[in-house]
Each structure stands twice: as C-alpha cells, then as structure tokens.
Amino acid sequence: MMIESMIGMLRYVSARHDDDLTDRMHYLFTPNILLAFSLLISFKQFGGRPLECMFPNKFPGSWEQYAENYCWSQDTYFVPPDQHVETLSEEQRSGTQFSYYQWVPFFLIFQAACFRLPSMLWNYLSTTSGIRIREVVERAMDASNMDETVRLKNVDVLVRHLKCALRFQRRMTRRNILIHKTIKILNLTYAPSFISTMYLFTKLLYLINVVLQLFLMNKFLETDKYEWYGLGLIKDIMNGTRWENSGAFPRVSVCDFTVRQVANIQKYSVQCVLVINIFNEKIFILLWFWYTAVLLLTIYSVFYWVIIMAFPCCGRWFVSQNLEMSEMKFNGEKQKKQVTKFVNEYLRADGVFVLRMIAMHAGVIFGTDLVLALWKVFYGLENAALDQQTEESRSGDSEDNNNKSNFLRRRKKKQLKENAYDMESLNKRMKNKGSYKEHKYENDTLETTLLPIENHYHGKGGRDSRASQEEKDERERREVETNDKRFSTEDPRI
C-alpha cells in the first residue's frame, strides 16, 4: 500500500516548459531522487531487519525478537570500541544517543515536498497576468513545427495571443478604477514585468530552500561536531578517520532494555548492528554533494537572470540578434532606435522574457520567426499585403452581389409566371361554377373586375347555399387583392 502511494506521487512530479535546467534540478530531478531513496530505505526498514542484536545464550527466541523491536523503537547510543559500557554514566549514554535512522524515509519525503513547493507557486503565479507562458512554450515546442506551414500557423496563433495579452496589460494599467486606485496591490498582476519578477522570486525561493535543506540535514543527522556535514566528512576521509572513532553513521551501537521478572527487574545492555546505516551513510553523502552542486548552479542562475532582466540593453541585444537572423533586411546599428521603441513600448519586460523562454525551449528558428512577426505587427509592415487582400475581397464581394441580384431577378420572373398560371386556373374554376373573373396585367399592375353572379337555389337549403357561396367569393376576392398589392411592389425591372 505504501509503495503504491509513493509511486502515485511520481505522477505529480513532471517536467514543465517555462523554466531552465536549474529549475528542473530543483522541482524535478531532486524530488525524484529523494522519493527513490525513500522507497529504497522503506524496503529495508519495514520489509527486512534493519537492526540485529547479539544476545546471551540464555535468551530464548521470543526474547530476542522482543529486544530487537524494543531497541529499534527506542534510541540506541554509540560507544567507541576501546571503551567499556559499564564505565559510562547515564548522562554520557544519553549524550551519544541517536534516533534519526527511524525517520529517514519520512525526512526524505519532507525534503522532496520542500523542493516542489516553489514550482507549484510559480505554476499559479504565471497564469494570473493573461500570458499563458506554459501553453505558449508548449505550442512553440510542437514537433509538427518542422513543417513550415504548421510552423507559420503556430507563429500566427502565438502572435495574436501575445498581442492581445500585451494590449490587455497596457489597458488595465491605464484604467481608472476606484478600487485599483485605493488598493495598489491589485495592479500588481497587470504590471509590465509581473511574470519576469515572479520568476526571479521563484528562483530566490529555490536558493533559500536548498540552503535550508543543507542546514536541516546537518541537524537531522545530529552531527554537531561538524559545522557542515559534507565538509567534515571529507576532512575525516582525508585524515583517515574511520566511523568507529567519528561516530558518524555508526554500524554498531548499544541498546539498554529491562525485563520484568517475578521478584525484580533485570536490566540488560546488548550490542546491535545497524544495517540500515550502511545505506543511510551513502545516501546522505550523495545528497549533500548533490545539494551543494544545485546550490552553486542556482546562485549562477539567479545572477544570470537578474542581469539580463535588470539591464534593458540585454533585451535589445536579444531582439536585434533574432532580427539579424531573420529573412528581413535588418541593420542593428541604423535601426537601434526602432529596436529600443519596440522593446520598451511594445514587448517590455514580460514580452522579452516570454520570447527568451520560447527561444530556449523551441529553438532559434521558431524564436526568430516569432520575433519577426511581432516586429511586423508593431511597425505595420504587413499593411500593404492587408490592403491588397482587402481590395481582392471587395472585388469578390461586388461580383457576388451582381450574381445574387441576377439570381433574384430570375426567381421573381419565375414566381410571377407561376402566379399568373394560378390565376388563370382560378378563372377557369370560377367559370365552371357559373361566375367568372377577368384579370388584366398592364405595366406590372393587376386590374380585377368582379361581375355579378346569378345563382338558382332549390329547396330549403337555397338560402344557406347562397350565403356560403358569398363567403367563398369574398375570400377569393381578398386573395386577389392581396396578390395585386404584392405584385404592385415588385421591382419595376422585372
């Protein structure tokens, strides 16, 4: 059960694409290493015999199992080989006690969580400004960008996203909302350097965390004689000092336990072998050197990002280099003012930071195309092409309108013929019933003449038949008038 839960935790430790190698050493490589070591120690500690003790012959087997479990759960203490246990006082024994070996797996899991926390904070902060830097870099890293058509399409998508996001930041900073005037911190997420500042803040958290973990490791291992565990261990190795004399990760320790008998309580001191300390020593030595390497690389990374973000000339140089590698004719010396305006007024700190991340992960080709596309958007170099497309669309729309008008005229003529045929059929039916109507078209107008109708009625139903016939004639007359009005409003060109 514990193994399944620990393996399930690995799914939450995955790589991101809005960082550099140093960041991945903190939130990806180090937590995975710590979880692997914790799993290894747990196998030995909970599935094997991490401690084995030597007992007198008079101890039965049940006593041996009880004593080993008791010594594992309680603290043992280290006694040098040339010193007798009987000569040690209670204070001396308690002074050399150690119990860290019981908590090693949990301590490693705690360290893994500490290395992961800054990345979780950056994951949240990077999505609050409007620029989805993670999705932007992932689209730039799409493997299908090897196809030029797909690459240009993705460049166009990212240009539109960055253009809208940067415009949103500028618009929000100019809005005069009362609550934003009162509480200035609400404007922080719309600052032109919010993402880049939060990235530097995350790197500082990484740096503080690795220093804190080195300090906690020194305290956890109870190596008070070493100011820094790794340096002291290197000195011992260079001086030829063995663990029997240093007491660091002792393999052999002494455990005191009591056995209650019928009349009295017997106290025993047994010598035990801490097999688990063989693994612990190697693991913590490796971790100390790993943390030291991560610390040095983090210091270098922090200084690097501070310099390229604090000095605007670094951003201008980055943009100039990409424009010089593009297909556009560009002269960095002559167009220095244009580059300065492009960086300071359009991209600003967050825009340059996003472009650096894209160039770092997606490569120079995609980064150059994206910088060139943003340059054209800012200076409107594509207006001529847009005007040409507009003229073509207008001419196409005019032709479509002419075709549509011709189609409507043909349809109206056809409808008029059908209506005339229907009215001719109606006249025939009326004549067959003893009444008739004449319809005459002159200049697209309809003239209708209703003549008197003479009917003969027979029997009692004659009056009712005459009334129903009058209603039918009135209804037909209304239909004719309706058609007359409709035809009179038709286009005179028909």
UniProtKB/TrEMBL annotation:
PROSITE patterns linked to this entry: PANNEXIN
GO biological process, one term: monoatomic ion transmembrane transport
Membrane topology: Multi-pass membrane protein
Record region (Disordered): 389-494
Family matches, as InterPro entries: Innexin (IPR000990)
Transmembrane segments: 194-216, 297-319
Biased composition (Basic and acidic residues): 455-494
Keywords, alphabetical: Cell junction, Cell membrane, Gap junction, Ion channel, Ion transport, Membrane, Transmembrane, Transmembrane helix, Transport
Entry's Gene Ontology cellular component terms: gap junction; plasma membrane
Main location per the UniProt record: other
One MF annotation (Gene Ontology) recorded for this entry: gap junction channel activity
Ion transport recorded as keyword: yes
Compartments, record wording: Cell junction, Gap junction; Cell membrane
Record carries keyword Ion transport: yes
Family: Belongs to the pannexin family.
PANTHER family reported in the protein's UniProt record: INNEXIN, INNEXIN-11
Protein task: Structural component of the gap junctions.
Protein's UniProt name: Innexin
Source organism: Steinernema carpocapsae
Lineage of origin: Eukaryota, Metazoa, Ecdysozoa, Nematoda, Chromadorea
